[in-house]
Design goal:
mainly alpha; Serine Threonine Protein Phosphatase 5, Tetratricopeptide repeat; Rossmann fold; 2 domains; 27 helices; 57% helix; globular
């Protein structure tokens, strides 16, 4: 879903009735002035202006127009809806509130249900997401955006096979719809069906649908050992002006991926750098202040005292670490055990943290937020989280949440779930950072678009992890990527033993495991373990000095 505008919004706007004009048979203007617009017409004009302001990213002005409409016409459903879309990607909790109000005021509007479902999906709240998207389809069975959103929801909810027919149906309704064209190959790749996905991606490219995204997805369906015809085509597309900044980023990363596979490292790094240049700048100083506040707030004494009121369940397992540190590999090994369910990357814990005031913008109030958390609130939050995990795997003994950035919230995990397992994945710092730099991440990972910033961010991550090991001594299992690569069985056995489960040989064949994988590692985890990614940074050494200098003593030269 687009961070600013849900895909159904523009189409929804076109369905709104145009303001009625006075009949030409009314009294002549020379005798009587033409009446002004009715309140409904005026509201409609204001909301259309709000929509245009939203497209121009003038969000406060758009919000103000919506409030003006609500002041004139309380409970106006479209005003609530636009306010909800303004919150998407900025304040998702506020988005949920306004969109729920829109649905309540106009429950037969499929677009309202669809967008509300999409926000729930963004927050990993799969049950309400699926419910609202299904309701949108009951109201409008041919709504392609809803078919694709439901496919995405099933894919994320470990029901990938249920997603495929939805995308196929969407393509029958509209063969040129970008969401359907890209959604089907995405579902196929998450299930490991790379060759089929490649066929659909090539069709999208041939039909000039989402060309940059399609090329970037296509080159990640396989590893290249000789130069493919796609490389020349990607370089040709880069010379065109039609793709804009975002499209150019996708194409540069696609070209970089192919050059990297071909071991043409200088050319690869040139494209990765070009692809990252337009990325959003990361506020490193603000992040440092937040890390400072977390370290000052979550002392060993505070966590121990609060943990006394936590939930004793052993169900949750949190796999954390920097992105590209081996988190997906660790999850897949654990999830290959018959008593373990791999739930993928869940944003539930982050939502809890934000809800109690531990967000990045709350550095000054972190201490008050956590000290004022009562035993009753902790118990309620933990119970709600466990019910959420149980919903995904009712019979599992362990459920793995592998959201890497939960490394920031280990103190909260220790409070809510004193018996939860925490697996911290660590990798050679330079290799880890390079692996982040060469991928086209979302804006949430804007720290990875600049080599120096990335190295300094890694130091903050390392500083926080060292603190958590002091807060929870002996509680966090450190899964070193290079150790796992060097001796897969020995380290895998340690992982399963840490989970408190008997060994199962299925854990050695994690790459044969069924079920969707929805991370950047979805090609790699379908392969047996390989060693070529260890010390890969040496291929780029002359190109990455700002990163190495920023890492300082953490760089293992």
């Amino acid at each position: 879903m687009n961070n600013r505008l849900p895909p159904a919004w523009a189409k929804h706007l076109k369905t709104q009735p145009a303001a009625k004009t006075a009949s030409s048979k009314a009294a002549p203007p020379t005798i009587k002035p033409q009446p002004g617009p009715s309140r409904a017409q005026a509201d409609d004009m204001l909301l259309r202006q709000a929509y245009e302001l939203q497209k121009a990213e003038r969000l406060p002005e758009a919000e103000e127009l919506c409030f003006r409409v609500l002041a004139r016409t309380p409970n106006h459903p479209l005003a609530y809806y636009i306010l909800g879309t303004l919150g998407v990607g900025h304040d998702d909790e506020k988005a949920l509130r306004y969109l729920a109000r829109a649905v309540g005021e106009e429950p037969q509007n499929p677009y309202y249900h669809l967008t509300l479902g999409e926000v729930y999906l963004k927050l990993s709240e799969f049950t309400p997401a699926i419910s609202h998207i299904q309701h949108a389809l009951e109201l409008k069975p041919d709504l392609v955006e809803a078919l694709c959103a439901l496919g995405d929801a099933y894919n994320a909810f470990d029901k990938g096979e249920m997603a495929l027919p939805l995308f196929e149906k969407a393509l029958k309704i509209n063969p040129d719809h970008p969401l359907a064209r890209m959604g089907l190959p995405h579902a196929l790749t998450s299930l490991g069906r790379m060759d089929e996905a490649a066929v659909h991606l090539k069709e999208a490219i041939d039909q000039r649908i989402s060309v940059p995204v399609a090329y970037n997805a296509l080159v990640h369906t396989r590893k290249f050992t000789e130069e493919p015809p796609e490389l020349a085509a990607i370089l040709t597309e880069l010379r065109k002006q039609e793709h804009g900044s975002e499209g150019a980023q996708q194409l540069h990363h696609a070209a970089g991926k192919v050059f990297n596979d071909l071991r043409r490292h200088k050319e690869a790094m040139d494209h990765f750098k070009a692809g990252n240049q337009a990325g959003r700048k990361f506020d490193l100083e603000n992040y440092r202040l937040w890390v400072d506040a977390m370290i000052e707030t979550f002392t060993p004494e505070l966590v121990a005292s609060k943990a006394a009121h936590g939930n004793p369940s052993e169900l949750p397992v949190f796999v954390v670490g920097m992105p590209r540190s081996g988190t997906t590999l660790a999850e897949q090994i654990c999830a290959s055990h018959p008593n373990v369910h791999g739930a993928g990357e869940l944003s539930k814990l982050r939502r809890i943290a934000n809800g109690i005031g531990l967000g990045y913008a709350s550095s000054e109030n972190l201490h008050e937020a956590i000290t004022s958390t009562t035993a009753e609130l902790s118990g309620m939050l933990a119970a709600e989280h466990l019910a959420y995990l149980r919903e995904r795997a009712p019979n599992a003994l362990r459920v793995v949440d592998k959201m890497p950035h939960n490394f920031e919230l280990i103190g909260l995990i220790g409070i809510l779930f004193p018996n939860a397992r925490i697996i911290h994945c660590r990798r050679d710092a330079i290799d880890n950072c390079i692996s982040c730099f060469i991928l086209k991440f979302t804006d949430a990972h804007s720290y990875s678009t600049d080599l120096e910033t990335l190295g300094l961010y890694y130091r903050e991550y390392d500083r926080l992890i060292r603190h958590w090991n002091k807060v929870l001594p002996g509680r966090i299992f450190e899964n070193r990527y290079e150790t796992l690569i060097e001796n897969q069985e020995e380290q895998s056995r340690r992982l399963i033993d840490y989970l408190g489960l008997p060994w199962d040989d299925a854990c050695l064949r994690f790459f044969d495991r069924d079920g969707p994988v929805n991370t950047y590692s979805k090609w790699q985890v379908r392969q047996p373990i390989y060693k070529s990614s260890v010390k890969r940074w040496k291929n780029y050494e002359s190109e990455i000095q700002p990163l190495i200098e920023a890492l300082g003593d953490l760089a293992e030269i």
